[in-house]
Every structure is written in structure tokens, then in C-alpha cells.
Amino acid sequence: MQPSHERLRRLIEPIHERALAFARCLCQSRADGDDLYQEALLRVLGKLDGLRDDAAFRPWLYRVVISVHRNRCRRAFWRRLLPLGDRPSPTSSAAIPRHRSTTA
Q1: Number of Cβ within a 10 Å radius of residue 37
Q2: How crowded is the C-beta side of 55, counted as CA atoms within 13 Å?
Q3: Is residue 37 predicted with pLDDT exceeding 80?
Q4: What does pTM read for this prediction?
């Protein structure tokens, strides 16, 4: 096992259950919370070398979980607002209703 993986395992073991419950609570869903937690752990693993003090791990992990959750919420928000590629945009001629001439 790589040193950073071993370090993460050592740091996460005592707080795993509570941190996972926190992620599930944020998402209000067990499955989404599990995904959020896993994504946060991957981000933490990638940046673990930057953590100098192991005592700061717990608050740092919670901040990462919150940050990942916010990013997911932002992406979901913008996906709802931005038109998909195959739908006509509101300003295209296909989206503007055509009125028939009333002259007889």
C-alpha cells in the first residue's frame, strides 16, 4: 500500500462512520451521500500530501465534503438552466410561434 493510502486509512478509520453519515445527511439520500463521500475521499487522497498536521484532518475532510457537495449542486442547477444541444434555444426561429395572417 502506498504511504498516502496508508495515511488516509489511519486518519479516516476513527471518523469514517460520522463523516459518511454527514455526507448522507447533506444529500438527504443514502446513495447520493455514499457517492459524495467517495468523491470527497478521492479528492482528499489526491491532496493529502498538502496536509501538514494530522490533527487538522477531521475539519479538513468535512470542508472537502461540503465543497464537493456545493460543486455538485451548482452543476445540477446549471444543467437545469442551460439548454441541451438538441433543443431549440428560446431565441431561435423554431422556438418562436408563428402567427397566421388574419387578412382575408
Answers
A1: 23
A2: 0
A3: yes
A4: 0.70
